[in-house]
Amino acid sequence: MAALDEFFRMMVARKASDLHFSTGARPMFRISGEMAAIEGKGPLTREATRDTLWEIMPERNREEFKQRHDTDFAYSLAGAGRFRSNIFMDRNGIGGVFRLIPDKILTVDDLKLAEEIRKLCFLSKGLVLVTGPTGSGKSTTLCALIDHINQSRRDHIITVEDPIEFVHPNKNCLINQREVGIHTSGFASALRAALREDPDIVLVGELRDLETTRIAIETAETGHLVFGTLHTNTAPSTVDRLINQFPANEQDQIRLMLASSLKAVISQTLLKKTGGGRVAALETMFVTSAIAANIREAKTYQIASVMQTGAKQGQVLLNEALLRLVKAKLVDPKDAYIKAVDKEDLVRRFQGENIRVDLGALGT
Asked: Which of 56, 85, 178, 362 has most Cβ atoms within 10 angstroms of its Cβ?
């Protein structure tokens, strides 16, 4: 048994989302969004940290770490789950961060996803993006959507991930999961190959570079349903991020392609839940003819206004999602305020509902 297995089992028992293992510091868990040192464990020495982390690293990742001073992989522990692992160097020495990926795949019912979001699983083609900062639950939402497709359709699904997180058994669909660095050299090369592998649905773990983004948009345009992720905080900013990746002389063409291929953006923000645990606020943008026109005409600054009046189409702005959670007493107003992008608008919404938040305590 690896020395880290003890910590991984503790993670599951204490319902921690992450384990932080750093030279010179006590091992720490992230529980309900907050860091907490593990009781009874002292600061880690350089040698002990290196030996402990080195023990679970595959040979390929050891070589990559020697060259790059960081590496990613997945580690499985029977009875506990899978752990997305990142090993890195900092000024004190080697360190590692491990994210728990539960064995059980959460369903669309478990996540209480809106009916408009579930309908995305039945599109024949187009681009659907799930966005948010690291640790916001993007992978969990995508996993639930793929599982819903797996149960409801009879299609071929190809996923390209770095690393593979949730493992999907074949149900009504055939699923091929490919891991960057092991089964393919990169996202872009795997996407190019996918077009020759008769897919109906393609999941791209991350649109992390221009070439991957370009191929993903082209794949969506050529009659495939493509799911992907980006590290953006709001739906309108996601559109800008996609377009601004491209050189200026290509942006007009990309706007035209996005206007026809982009179907929805789900932007997630994870918050501390009252009484423990965490809950996601979802900003949802479904690309209507009005939003498509704004994308095509480079008027993305007007998208938020269209979303504000599109509740019947399932449009939800982040502040509306935050307000709902506060009114349901699932989230403290202070925590909602901290996570808000447009804080002044959220304060106005609070005032309209007679919700008080102590801004002085936040240093504002």
From this structure: 85
In a domain, 358, yes or no: no
C-alpha to C-alpha distance for 117 and 345, rounded to whole angstroms = 25
210 within 8 A of 245, measured Cβ to Cβ: yes
Q: For residue 290, give every residue at least 6 positions away whose Cβ sits within 8 Å of its Cβ, in sequence order, or none.
A: 306, 310
User: CB within 8 A of 85, min separation 6: which ones?
Assistant: 56, 72, 73, 74, 75, 96, 97, 98, 99, 163
**Residue 59 sits in the same domain as residue 144:** no
CA 122 to chain centre: 21
Q: What is d(CA 38, CA 323) in angstroms, rounded to the nearest whole number? A: 34
Q: Please tell me the distance from the alpha carbon of residue 204 to that of residue 177, in angstroms, as a whole number.
A: 10
340 within a domain of the structure (yes/no): no
Does 179 lie in the same domain as 37?
Answer: no
Does residue 296 sit in the same domain as residue 201?
yes
Report residues of the chain scoring pLDDT below 50: 364
pLDDT recorded at residue 49:
96
Q: Where would I find the H helices in 184-285?
A: 187-194, 210-221, 235-244, 251-261
Predicted local distance difference test score (pLDDT) of residue 347? 95
Q: Identity (one letter) of the amino acid at 11?
A: M
* Cis amide linkage into residue 247, ω under 30° from 0: no
- Strand (E) or helix (H) holding 87: strand 81-90
Q: In angstroms, rounded to a whole number, what is the distance separating the alpha carbons of residues 359 and 183? A: 50
pTM of the model: 0.87
Q: From residue 194, give the alpha-carbon distance in Å to each of 64, 166, 240, 251, 332.
A: 26, 20, 27, 25, 45
Q: What is the DSSP letter of 273?
A: P
Give CA–CA dist 144/214, Å, rounded. Answer: 26
| Co-location of 204 and 280 in the same domain | yes
pLDDT for residue 149: 98
Give the structural domain span for 24: 3-101
- Which residues of 111-200 form beta strands (DSSP E)? 126-131, 156-161, 174-179
* Inside any domain, residue 31: yes
How many angstroms separate the CA atoms of 28 and 20, rounded?
Answer: 5
Domain CATH for 133:
3.40.50.300
